[in-house]
């Protein structure tokens, strides 16, 4: 697997958290398709849940706050093979999630890379080296059937 120094500087751990692996599987992505700001959003969300709220991260609340979009390669209109998935906070997400300002530039982040072993007991999606393919799941919001549970968790986040 290819990993990047900047991912680890933004909280990426190895072996990776189950929540990150689940998002990659749901989105049909490989690790190198993320960019450093996306890794920051994911690791920050996991930290808020586990360290601040003392509970497991909830994917529907994540979907309420964040969405993904394709990033084109500068030399073509195709999705970039490295960093081609951009994760961003939804402007309509409200004020219950902690405010922070991500690193203001991703320039050159992919220059410091190295290989990590894909652990057999909790693997990442297989490395193909291909470009990410846009999925409907990149922009899904919270499932309607989970909205009540998400509202309860969001209230707890506001109270803290």
Give the integer mean of the pLDDT values.
85
Strand content: 5-15%
Please provide the count of β strands: 4
**Gross geometry:** globular
Please state the CA-atom Rg, rounded to the nearest Å: 16 Å
What characterizes the major β-sheet?
2 strands, antiparallel
Q: Order of SSEs, N→C?
A: EHHHHEEEH
Cα-to-Cα separation, first versus last residue: 38 Å
Structure characterization notes:
With 160 residues, the protein is an alpha+beta fold. It has one domain (2-159). Helix content is 33%, strand content 10%. It is built from five helices and four strands. It has helices at 5-9, 18-27, 36-53, 59-65, 147-159, and strands at residues 2-4, 66-70, 85-89, 113-115. The strands form two sheets. It has a two-stranded antiparallel sheet with strand order 1-4. It has a two-stranded antiparallel sheet with strand order 2-3. The termini are far apart. The mean pLDDT is 85.
SSE blueprint:
Elements: E1 2-4, H1 5-9, H2 18-27, H3 36-53, H4 59-65, E2 66-70, E3 85-89, E4 113-115, H5 147-159
Antiparallel strand pairs: 1-4, 2-3
Structure summary:
This protein has 160 residues and is of the alpha+beta class. Helices cover 33% and strands 10% of the residues. The strands form two sheets. The chain has a two-stranded antiparallel ribbon with strand order 1-4. A two-stranded antiparallel sheet has the order 2-3.
């Amino acid at each position: 697997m290819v990993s990047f120094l900047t991912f680890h500087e933004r909280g990426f751990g190895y072996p990776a958290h189950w929540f990150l692996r689940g998002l990659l599987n749901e989105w049909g992505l490989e690790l190198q398709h993320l960019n450093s700001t996306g890794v920051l959003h994911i690791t920050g969300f996991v930290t808020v849940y586990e360290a601040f709220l003392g509970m497991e991260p909830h994917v529907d609340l994540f979907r309420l706050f964040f969405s993904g979009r394709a990033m084109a390669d500068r030399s073509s209109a195709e999705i970039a093979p490295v960093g081609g998935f951009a994760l961003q906070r939804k402007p309509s997400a409200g004020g219950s999630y902690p405010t922070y300002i991500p690193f203001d530039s991703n320039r050159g982040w992919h220059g410091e890379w190295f290989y990590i072993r894909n652990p057999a007991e909790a693997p990442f999606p297989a490395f193909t080296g291909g470009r990410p393919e846009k999925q409907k799941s990149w922009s899904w919001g919270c499932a309607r059937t989970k909205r009540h549970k998400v509202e309860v968790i969001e209230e707890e986040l506001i109270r803290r």
